[in-house]
Amino acid sequence: MSSPAVYLEGSARKYALAAAKAEGEGNYESAITNLRKAVELLEDLVKNYPDHPMAMIYRRLIGQYKRKLEDLERKRMEPASGGDDEVYVVENKEEAPPFVMREKPSITFNDIAGLEEAKEAIREVIIYPVKRPDLFPLGWHRGVLLYGPPGTGKTMLGIAAANEAKAEFLYVDAASIMSKWLGEGEKNVKRLFSYARERASQVPVVVFIDEVDALLGYHSTEIGGEVRVRNQFLKEMDGVLDKMLKVHLYVIAATNKPWKLDEAFLRRFQKRVYVPLPSKEARKELLRKLTEKLRLQNVDLDELAEMLEGYSGSDIRDVVQDAYMITVREVFERGGSGEPRPVSMDDFKRVLEKRKPSVDAALTIRFEEWASRFGAT
Question: What is the spatial distance between Cα 74 and Cα 182, in angstroms, rounded to a whole number?
Fold first, then answer.
């Protein structure tokens, strides 16, 4: 069973993509139904995980989807039109297209437990060239693909990279790019990169594309728009990779399904970094960070980290929250007064009896096999 946070986020994404597809087919009723469900799931996520590192982005998505719902309701009431697709035009070059989220949480590499190899790869591609471009007479890499199981910290790495480089962060999700309400998908891709290039003439820019396989992967059934989006993206990436380009514009893509991406796409990402499940030391460090605001009693973090082998970072966050909730539940069972007792090792053991890892061992093997063929760190 998936971690609740990962499950809610993944389900919301699927509904949003289904809404975009339904809208592209002119089925506004289905688009509205699916997008409402996406909003409900994201609201549940923010409500239950208010301190989640991605909470700011989830709230931004909720606002974006709600505005989209208003647009869909209007379109549903309008008579069918035979005219061209509506296209959003950026009047001011410094105005971000509405499907781009510029906000980023204040996450740095120090906030991310473990993943040292991934951090070092990002430093070499982004941080070092930004700080000392004079050391790169042959230019520098600009594309990073982060792949690995859900809940391992890929998005947090992208945010941290932007913060470490003092860069503007453009977070893009596939549902918004594909949505017909802003014009054809390939026009949205072109608009995204046009805006990013304009901003990169003034400040470093990191474009982060979440779940890139949903946007650019191959699927058993495809419509023409998906093919055009993929081709436009490859064209734009070729422009970004130009060695003569001296601006600091970088593209980080994240995926849980790298095998859905073709080799033409992979070639545009010179760094392909596996973001694995956390090691024991990383699990211990994460537990230390997650429990620093809690009172603990007889909790051996080293032993607990050993017990959490196979759990993702998101899983571990849920385990800690569930263990603490045992003590909160007891407060309400005795009338709601007083403070929770310290969290004990027995609380964690009770949680682990019911909460299993969200990542199947067979999936981990598949990632490792893919990494042995296509990894590039």
Answer: 14
CATH of domain 280-358: 1.10.8.60
Phi/psi for 121 (5° steps) reads -60, -40
Span 97-144, pLDDT tens digits: 766 766 677 889 998 988 998 999 999 999 999 999 999 888 888 899
Q: Are 367 and 147 in contact (CB under 8 A)?
A: yes
Q: What are the boundaries of each domain within the chain?
A: 1-83, 85-277+359-377, 280-358
Distance CA 287, CA 324 (A): 13
Tokens 């993509």 belong to: 17
Question: β-pairing, 143-147 with 249-255?
Answer: parallel
Query: Cα torsion for 251, 7, 275, 104, to the nearest 10°?
Result: 40
Q: Which residue has the tokens 């069918």?
A: 80
Distance CA 310, CA 313 (A): 10
Closest listed residue to residue 38, CA positions, set 179, 223, 218:
179
Q: List, in sequence order, the alpha helices (H) in the chain.
A: 4-24, 28-48, 55-77, 116-122, 128-131, 154-164, 174-178, 185-200, 212-216, 224-240, 263-267, 280-291, 301-307, 313-333, 345-354, 361-374
The candidate with the shortest Cα–Cα distance to 302, out of 345, 363, 357, is 345
Q: How big is the CA angle at 24 (ends 19 and 26), to the nearest 5 degrees? A: 95
| Strands 205-210, 168-173: pairing kind | parallel
CATH topology for 1-83? Methane Monooxygenase Hydroxylase; Chain G, domain 1 (1.20.58)
pTM greater than the 0.70 cutoff: yes
Q: How many CA atoms lie within 13 A of 118 on its CB side?
A: 27
Other Cβ atoms less than 10 A from the Cβ of 95: the count is: 11
Which CATH architecture is the domain 85-277+359-377 placed in? Answer: 3-Layer(aba) Sandwich (3.40)
Query: pLDDT tens digits for 274-329?
Result: 999 999 999 999 999 999 989 999 999 999 999 999 999 989 999 999 999 999 99
Instruction: Please say whether the beta carbons of 191 and 148 come within 8 A.
Output: no
CA distances from 349 to 322, 345, 369 (A): 11, 6, 33
